[in-house]
Automatic annotation (TrEMBL):
Family: Belongs to the acyl coenzyme A hydrolase family.
A single cellular component GO annotation: cytosol
Native source species: Aurantiacibacter xanthus
Residue ranges that the Swiss-Prot or TrEMBL entry lists as coiled coil: none
Protein name (record): Acyl-CoA thioesterase
Length: 128
């Protein structure tokens, strides 16, 4: 199965273009920039699912599989894997597509854990 087939029918939680300001001294995109984009996408998913504020409490299993270059489109896909009383585990994948190409390539993946919180920052139940 090709990457295009894997992603068919899935909408990204977020899609951005890697820009020169996001690079390290070697011209590749900073890993931290990519982590922040993934956290942002997972946060959108967590807030929508919990119908309110949710905060990141953990990130597990990050692996950088391929570099991202300036000009690449980065699409981040999320899937809720587990929901507890106030927490959610969200699987996150980041894929790059070169500017003039249709083929996508997975560049990293991780699992993010979020906790739904109230206005005072205390854990709150997620409505089922």
């Amino acid at each position: 199965m090709t990457e295009t087939e894997i992603l068919a029918g899935r909408d990204p939680a977020i899609r951005v273009t890697a820009m020169p300001r996001d690079t390290n001294a070697y011209g590749d995109i900073f890993g931290g920039w990519l982590v922040s984009i993934m956290d942002n996408a997972a946060g959108l998913t967590a807030a929508r699912h919990s119908k309110g504020r949710a905060v990141t409490v953990a990130m597990d299993g990050m692996q950088f599989l391929q570099p991202v270059k300036v000009g690449c489109e980065v699409s981040v896909y999320t899937e809720i894997e587990k929901v507890g009383r106030s927490s959610m585990v969200i699987a996150v994948e980041a894929w790059r597509r070169e500017r003039h190409s249709e083929e996508a390539c997975k560049v990293t993946q991780a699992k993010f854990t979020f906790v739904a919180v109230d206005d005072d920052g205390r854990p709150r139940s997620i409505a089922k």
